[in-house]
């Protein structure tokens, strides 16, 4: 052994902190959260007795736990003397990591508690038509099975209006596509979809696997009423190609959009999954658009996560985790 510094009571064995895979596994198996919490308390109080009083445990029990941690690491964490304790440099390193670990566990507990606390109450959502038709019914049903006492109020709006209602605090959260102004809110990814062209079954383009949007500019379109994100995108892409999307008729729902195509009143751009719902029931063909912009992301938007109610936070966590 060798003496470090002028205090012969500080003796360090010729042992290194575990750096090998075996040493790391030893740390993971033998270090426990209670021992780390008690060690942090001793570091903060600078006294074994005061830490024991704070943690409602016998000083001898704390001493044994710290000795076990020292044995696992192979280096002393504290120096004991009559006036209290002094934390060694190794101990300071362990304290710093221990506080990070304990803080992470506390954050985990706080986030999980949102699920339990959010088991009762109500959540108000504004969502665009694409989210409501394609994904929300099944997702909200699954959420309801986990949280049967949470009521969900759903308001259908275009993406721009979704942001407006979230900004006015008229709803707890919104679901919409990426439109101007969305960056002002906190966001979490919800679902991805792809746009497709809905064609009459006998249309000349129905034989293709994918259709570039440019090939549609001479067609007559059926569109959605209002200033939806889908309507804006179709118009912008047509202008970017030096043309226009000539809309002959506007309807209020994606269901009506597909029915108008079936009746031969034009073609339509719609989420592919929506169009596929009507293939077979209507004489239409649905072909994905080949353009990169046709791949879209739906977002959960809210003013700030720490301002969500417990039930709203539980719903945001549920909808944003593990979604394809």
UniProtKB/TrEMBL annotation:
Alphabetic keyword roster: DNA-binding, Transcription, Transcription regulation
Stretches of the chain forming a coiled coil according to its record: none
InterPro entries linked to this entry: HTH-type_LysR_regulators, LysR_HTH_N, LysR_subst-bd, WH-like_DNA-bd_sf, WH_DNA-bd_sf
UniProt GO molecular function: DNA binding; DNA-binding transcription factor activity
Keyword Magnesium among record annotations: no
Signal peptide: none
Homology family: Belongs to the LysR transcriptional regulatory family.
Name of the protein described by the UniProt record: LysR family transcriptional regulator
Native organism: Pandoraea terrae
Organismal lineage: Bacteria, Pseudomonadati, Pseudomonadota, Betaproteobacteria, Burkholderiales
């Amino acid at each position: 052994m060798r003496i470090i510094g002028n205090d012969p009571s500080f003796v360090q064995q010729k042992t290194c902190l575990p750096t090998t895979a075996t040493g790391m596994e030893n740390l993971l198996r033998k270090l426990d959260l209670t021992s780390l919490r008690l060690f942090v308390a001793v570091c903060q109080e600078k006294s074994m007795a005061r830490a024991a009083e704070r943690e409602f445990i016998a000083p001898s029990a704390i001493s044994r736990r710290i000795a076990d941690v020292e044995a696992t690491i192979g280096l002393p964490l504290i120096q004991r003397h009559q006036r209290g304790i002094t934390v060694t440099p190794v101990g300071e390193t362990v304290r710093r990591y221990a506080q990070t670990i304990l803080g992470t566990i506390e954050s985990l507990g706080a986030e999980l508690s949102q699920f339990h606390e959010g088991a009762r109450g109500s959540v108000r959502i504004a969502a665009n038509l694409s989210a409501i038709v394609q994904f929300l019914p099944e997702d909200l049903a699954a959420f309801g099975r986990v949280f049967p006492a949470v009521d969900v109020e759903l308001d259908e709006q275009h993406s721009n209006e979704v942001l407006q209602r979230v900004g006015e605090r008229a709803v707890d959260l919104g679901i919409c596509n990426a439109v101007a102004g969305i960056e002002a809110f906190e966001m979490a990814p919800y679902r991805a979809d792809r746009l497709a062209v809905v064609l009459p079954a006998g249309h000349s383009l129905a034989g293709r696997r994918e259709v570039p949007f440019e090939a549609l500019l001479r067609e007559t379109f059926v569109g959605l009423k209002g200033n939806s994100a889908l309507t804006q995108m179709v118009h912008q892409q047509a202008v970017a190609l030096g043309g226009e999307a000539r809309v002959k008729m506007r309807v209020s729902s994606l269901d009506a959009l597909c029915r108008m195509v079936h009746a031969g009143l034009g073609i339509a751009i719609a989420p592919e999954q929506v169009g596929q719902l009507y293939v077979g029931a209507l004489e239409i063909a649905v072909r994905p658009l080949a353009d990169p912009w046709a791949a879209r992301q739906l977002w959960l938007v809210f003013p700030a996560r720490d301002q969500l109610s417990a039930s709203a936070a539980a719903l945001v966590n549920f909808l944003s985790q593990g979604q394809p």
